[in-house]
Amino acid sequence: MARAVSKDRRVKETLLAIQNHLYLIGSELALSGKDRRLLKREITQKEVDWLTSLSTDFEASLNLEPKFIIYGETFISSILDVARAVSRRAERRVAEMKSKGMLTHPRILEYLNRLSDVLYLLARYEDKKAGMKPKHPIY
């Protein structure tokens, strides 16, 4: 949904690449043991490094304050914030798999961890492009 709604070419291309990576991750998680030989490709350090680099680039361009924010400034950022929450949930489930010895490829967990950071930054980037300043909780 975020890719369909965003008007920014870089965001759209980033999300398309992420969607392709998530297909790889889904395949890896579905196959175990000897079935792994059926995989044509796996998530590698290259994809993890790509997300890390994206994070660094967006973070530098956004110059965010180290404060909590209230989400929901724009429709697109709200969609990206929901995607971030879903990616965090997926990360927790994969971490459970790892603790049970069911995860044979540690790059998946690293990728999911970086993914939530990138989705957060993409949401803030979309807000900034829309001229919205983050609102912070009052406490």
Description:
The protein is mainly α. It has one domain (2-129): Cobalamin adenosyltransferase-like (Hypothetical Protein Ta1238, Chain: A, Up-down Bundle). Helices cover 66% and strands 0% of the residues. It contains 5 helices and no strands. It is elongated and about 50 Å long. The mean pLDDT is 91.
Based on the model shown, name its key terms.
139 residues, mainly alpha, Hypothetical Protein Ta1238, Chain: A, elongated
Order of helices and strands: HHHHH
- CATH architecture grouping: Up-down Bundle
**Beta strand count:** 0
Radius of gyration equals: 16 Å
CATH class: Mainly Alpha
- Name the beta content range: under 5%
How much helix, percentage-wise, in residues? 55-70%
Described by the principal axes of the CA atoms, the overall outline is elongated
- Decide which structural class fits the backbone: mainly alpha
Present the secondary structure layout.
Blueprint: H1 2-5, H2 9-30, H3 45-62, H4 75-99, H5 107-129
Helix pairs in contact: 3-5, 4-5
Short précis:
With 139 residues, this protein is an all-alpha fold. The chain contains 5 helices and no strands.
